[in-house]
Amino acid sequence: MMRLDAVLVALVVASALGVVASQHQARKLFGALEREQTRAHGLEVEWGQLQLEQSTWAAHGRVEKLARERLGLSAPVQGQMVVLEPQS
Amino acid sequence: MKKQRTVTFNHNPLLKRELPAWRSRLVLMALLGCSAALIGRSLYLQGIHNEFLQAKGESRYARVLEVPATRGRITDRHGDMLAVSTPVRSIWAIPSDARLEPAQARQLAKLLEVDVAELDARLGASRDFVYLKRQVAPDEAERIAALKLPGIHQQREYRRFYPGGEVMAHVLGFTSVEDRGQEGIELAYEKLLAGQAGSRRVIRDRRGQVVEDVESIRPPRDGQDVALAMDGKIQYLAYSALREAMTTHRAKAGAVVVLDVRTGEVLALANAPTFNPNNRANLTGAQLRNRVFTDTFEPGSVMKPFIAGLALERGKFKAETSIDTSPGRMTIGTATISDAHRHGVLTVAQIIQKSSNIGTVKMAQQFSPDEMWRLFDQLGFGAPLNLGFPGEAGGRLRPAKSWRPIEQATMSYGHGISVSLIQMARAYLAFARDGDLLPLSLVKVDAPPAAGKQIFSPKVARELRTMLEMAAGPGGTAPKAQVPGYRVAGKTGTAHKLEGGRYTNKYVSSFVGFAPVSDPRLVVAVMIDEPSAGQHYGGAVAGPVFARIVEGSLRALGIAPDAPITPLQLARKPADPAPIAAVQESM
């Protein structure tokens, strides 16, 4: 009888410790998940900002200005254009 | 081995007292009673009436957190960003908590870019909550947070940015500080774009970190992205062509709309004057107006081809039927209608080419007001197109019963009736397509309807295309609308403006056309309000804008030229003097 009691007590203690350990593990993992989610959100925000930046740099008005002023480009006049017919 | 002797103290005679037995029982009972009371109380608190304590306990560590949702992005048809929300912070204060040292106040004022005196005034307010500055960039907010001032708090918000700036301003509209749509697409598609913030209950530990997710009360719903039908390149072309025309002709206002003939999508829509949606200080109503949708005007001669279409459709005229327009004047009732030039006998095709008022009126007189009204109604005049754009105007089309003969006559050449530019552009789809009208769309269409409402037969539409090509060609009213390499067709309009019930000497010049004629892909409608640099004919003012947009757009879309390119470079001998003087006709 005594022995059985001792075994049961030991089991209860072990299971209680297990609960504590797994709870701790769960919280730690949850913390990690939370951090990753925050990071994901941050990255999404950054992506939006980069898209914004990209479309600001690639704005048609800016491209045209650079092409004309810095690179000295211009639209070809009629005689300079060659139209290729697709071979059928 | 010694035998152990046990000493039992309770039988110690010294301790032996003769006490009445009830005393010990009483103590025992009292103790039992106490513990029963305790057990009862704890049963009551934990089992039966446990809400109160549970709520109290939860309020110590459980929190409901708001999960922010972002507003959907707006992109053009190629996926280029047109409107993006990014997080910013708002700085707010509880004035009674914000007791700042003068040095702190100066630091804060510097970071907020406001006057110290103004900051003091705001913090001295007797309210519980004041915004110090809204929509502060995140890094700036970080620096303010680093000051760790008492009573100064921050709040996350979103701000909408428009990388397209003024080019796209009128289509997109803008949002309020609360990130809600106020104008344009932002308002029209508010339901789709707006995100819905969610909330969840969590458990926080001593340091305020979330340690457990209890439940998600409402999941956040991010706003959906909207892909517009707009083509960024064509829009830019339209905008810059319009802006150039505005300066050359010193016009009061102008508008351009470009439609895709095959799908009915709005590829570009530009207005002038415009505004920068990223900086909306000092805006005026004139800048905000989207003239394409909300302004109606008397279209003038751009209306004539519809009458010719009706005439051909009913078989009362053929393209080569001759009509005598001499002597260039005509009296109906007490009013006189005139042509700017005398033309004599013209065919129906020539009437459109030369834009003769008399000829058009003579065709229109063959029809009852009711027949004309029905045509206008079918073309979509007189009622808003219902694209969902805020403030769409329907124009004015009076019921046929109230038309007097002179009114029927003037309406045939576009006076006494008012339309918006988008309505006119859509009506021209009937010529550019094989006589049918598609519903328009501001958002990208994946599966365009194969055919719309039939207005004219394909044969009549084809004949009209030829006439309109003549109008935009040599001998027509808009030779300046021509585009090298492509066949274009279109009609000019020059209307006197109606002010206070009288026609003034101010004009609205317009041009509506399509290209390439062999297989139309684009309808372009241009309207210039009050050009005041000398020229006012639609062909001279709006025609070149059309040409510039069509030339650039067709190239951008990669559409093969359908006209032989005249090799101007190879012509060594000086060009002939302009072979045919441009016939720039009024009305």
Give an overview in words:
- Chain A: It holds the Pfam family FtsL.
- Chain A: It is a single-pass type II membrane protein.
- Chain A: Essential cell division protein. May link together the upstream cell division proteins, which are predominantly cytoplasmic, with the downstream cell division proteins, which are predominantly periplasmic.
- The complex is a heterodimer of chains A (88) and B (587).
- By secondary structure, chain A is an all-alpha fold.
- Chain A has 2 helices and no strands.
- The model of chain A has no long low-confidence stretch (mean pLDDT 88).
- Chain A has one domain (2-70).
- Chain A has helices at residues 2-57, 60-70.
- Chain B is α+β, with helices and mostly antiparallel strands.
- Chain B has a domain at 232-277 and 285-557: DD-peptidase/beta-lactamase superfamily (Beta-lactamase, 3-Layer(aba) Sandwich).
- Helix content of chain B is 33%, strand content 21%.
- Chain B is built from 20 helices and 21 strands.
- In chain B, the strands form 7 sheets. In chain B, strands 2, 3, 4, 5 and 8 form a 5-stranded mixed sheet that branches. Chain B has a 5-stranded antiparallel sheet with strand order 10-9-21-20-19, sandwiched between helices. Chain B has a 3-stranded antiparallel sheet with strand order 1-6-7.
- In chain B, a hairpin with a 5-residue loop joins strand 2 (74-75) and strand 3 (81-93).
- Chain B is elongated.
- The A-B interface holds A 26-27, 30-31, 34, 44-45, 48-49, 51-52, 54-56, 58-61, 64, 77-81, 83 and B 70, 73, 80-82, 84-87, 161, 163-165, 167, 209-213, 232-233, 236, 240, 484-485, 560-561, 565-570.
Task: Please write out the topology.
The complex is a heterodimer of chains A (88) and B (587).
Chain A: H1 2-57, H2 60-70
Chain B: H1 21-48, H2 51-61, E1 62-67, E2 74-75, E3 81-93, H3 102-112, H4 116-123, E4 130-136, H5 138-146, E5 152-161, H6 169-172, H7 184-188, H8 190-193, E6 198-204, E7 210-218, E8 226-227, H9 232-248, E9 253-260, E10 266-272, H10 285-288, H11 291-294, E11 296-297, H12 304-313, E12 322-324, E13 329-332, E14 335-338, E15 345-347, H13 348-354, H14 357-364, H15 369-378, H16 405-412, E16 419-420, H17 421-432, E17 436-437, E18 453-454, H18 458-471, E19 489-499, E20 502-515, E21 522-529, H19 538-541, H20 543-557
Parallel strand pairs in B: 2-8
Antiparallel strand pairs in B: 1-6, 2-3, 3-4, 3-5, 6-7, 9-10, 9-21, 11-16, 12-15, 13-14, 17-18, 19-20, 20-21
Helix pairs in contact in B: 9-20, 12-14, 12-18, 13-18, 14-16
GO cellular component, one term (chain A): cell division site
Subunit structure (chain A): Part of a complex composed of FtsB, FtsL and FtsQ.
Function (chain A): Essential cell division protein. May link together the upstream cell division proteins, which are predominantly cytoplasmic, with the downstream cell division proteins, which are predominantly periplasmic.
